[in-house]
Amino acid sequence: MVVLALAALHQFFVQTVIRPLNSSVGWWLEVLVYTLTGSIVAWWGLTYIARNADKQAETERELRRAFDELEDNHQKLLALDRYGQYIAAAPNEDEVYKVAVQAPTQLAGAQSATIVTFDEEKRTLNLAMAWGLSEDYAQSLRNHLDYDVSAERCRTCSVLHAHVDSDCPLFAGVAEQARTDGIHSLVCVPINTDQERVGVLTAYFPSADGPKEEQAYLLNILGGVIAFAVDSLRSRERQMEALHSLDNVSRSQQSLDALASQTLQVAMRGWKAQAGAIFLYLPEEERWISLAQEGLDGVTSARFAFAQTLAQEAFSQQSLILHPAMFGQPHELGSAAALPLITEGQSFGALFLGAHRQHGFSKQHSDLLQTIAHQISLAIRNAQLYAELQQTAMLRERYRLAREFHDGLAQTLGYLGLQIDRIERMFQKRQYDNLEREINETRQIVRSAYMDVREAIEGLRLRWDDPEQLARNLETYARDFARQANLDVTFTASSADLTAPSRISLQLLRIAQEALTNVRKHAQAQRVDVLVLRRGDELELRVADDGVGFSDAPRRNSGHRSYGLTSMRERAESIGGRLSVVTGPGQGSVITVTVPMPSAPAPDSFETSLSESLPMTS
After folding, report:
1. Residues 322 and 212 in one domain
2. DSSP per-residue string spanning 59-106
3. Number of domain units in the chain
4. Residues 111 and 209 in one domain
5. Does the model's pTM come out above 0.85?
6. Who contacts 533 (Cβ-Cβ below 8 Å, separation ≥6)?
7. What is the pLDDT of residues 183-217, one digit of tens each?
8. Range of the domain at 404
9. Mutual orientation of helices 2-13 and 26-88 as an angle, nearest 10°?
């Protein structure tokens, strides 16, 4: 349009001004006008072309940036999906935390991350897992959480992003150490189950701005995945614990009323039910009686009437009755289940369970609910046939041993069988060059299996004349371990005569045994430090190595370490203690157990280098 306008103006000027002059200079004037007009048109055209070229280049750059950002988000979503699959497949809570604590570095560019859980009894925070933090910072943070931070503040906190200079309880008191580590902000992702907030995933960033909006969104999704996995594992653990507890209860010699009350409490605890009852039908009298009940508000209440009606329905149909979601009912229950109590093909009563929450009972629980009802039926019918309650500690120890043998020795033997088949095939094919290497590898596996069995047998044979002498017994075991594993082991205690109650001492020795076994098998360490210290009213056991740390990528089969951590954590919790793990790629691992103890003065510490005082043998 501009060109046409200039052309029209040019012709108008020539026709109306120059040519009517009929002058000798008219031709030159016309050439001059053509030159001026052409220059203007050329300048405008080149400017237009250049401007459009710049716009096209900027558009291409924006498209490239958008594509790169889209590709980056796509990769992060794939990573989130991969982490989600590993978390969902995790066999226990420790494995969930071990995988989840690594995710923020890849999903949001975090420098490091921690998972903090709540100590329900002490109402304090526990550093359950740390990834990428320096050991000094991790130790400072753990001490800070143990003594200076109330769990209630983190349980109710709604501020997700905090600067290092803020009053955030995860920064206050350790801000200087955070700056030393190059950390200037954090983002907290609450881990909320249907019932409560069970912990916090914290990602640490070197910048004060923290993550981008889309990265924070990915972290929030990750928090939901962790919460679902933890809730499922805890629910499964409660239900399996209920089965074990019912098995124990059924072996005890108790009155029928006491046994019914105890089994009902176990079943309610397994499903976090707020109401429950065991009803028996007396055919001779053609009436029902409540053998045990909890949370039914009395026999005249709407809740009791609903429970009895549902129990009678399950009894008459001889099948499970489910109400997974109820709203606005007089009994104020959100979900309920009733099951017939049947032994030897005859129904003699019914079990009722009710919860305030929706979907507390669903079809996916059917098999386990029926198993619970069957166990209760057996317990009630055979209450007088069992001699005495088997020790819970013995059952747990057998479970741990079975789990460890299955995870260690059984898998090793299975692999050896495959290896022998492979060697046989190589021998038949006369692949002698590779045969020697395979035989050497098999020999190493056999030696490792022998060490596992030897440690397990020695662990079962462990006896102490005075089990309360914790420091002396632990030093003896560490000394033997240093000799057998050919490792540089240093033992430190706040006192050579440090003692603890037998129950605590034995569990700490077992934890140390498990931790040292993990070091030998997995850490590839050169040095191990074993410390047992008395800190006021707490006893602390720490096993630190300079090995490779945990893997920097999540794995489905992390095997011994997963179950080893679970075993150590169970032992710590059985004596009222807490276990925390600090690790990272290439920075070794630190296992710390803190147990409450009566206050006592702590004498001067002593340290022994076991590798220097003993001849090392292979």
Report:
1. no
2. HHHHHHHHHHHHHHHHHHHHHHHHHHHHHHT-SSHHHHHHHHTTHHHH
3. 5
4. yes
5. no
6. 492, 493, 494, 539, 540, 542, 602, 605
7. 999 999 998 876 678 889 999 999 988 888 888 88
8. 392-461
9. 170
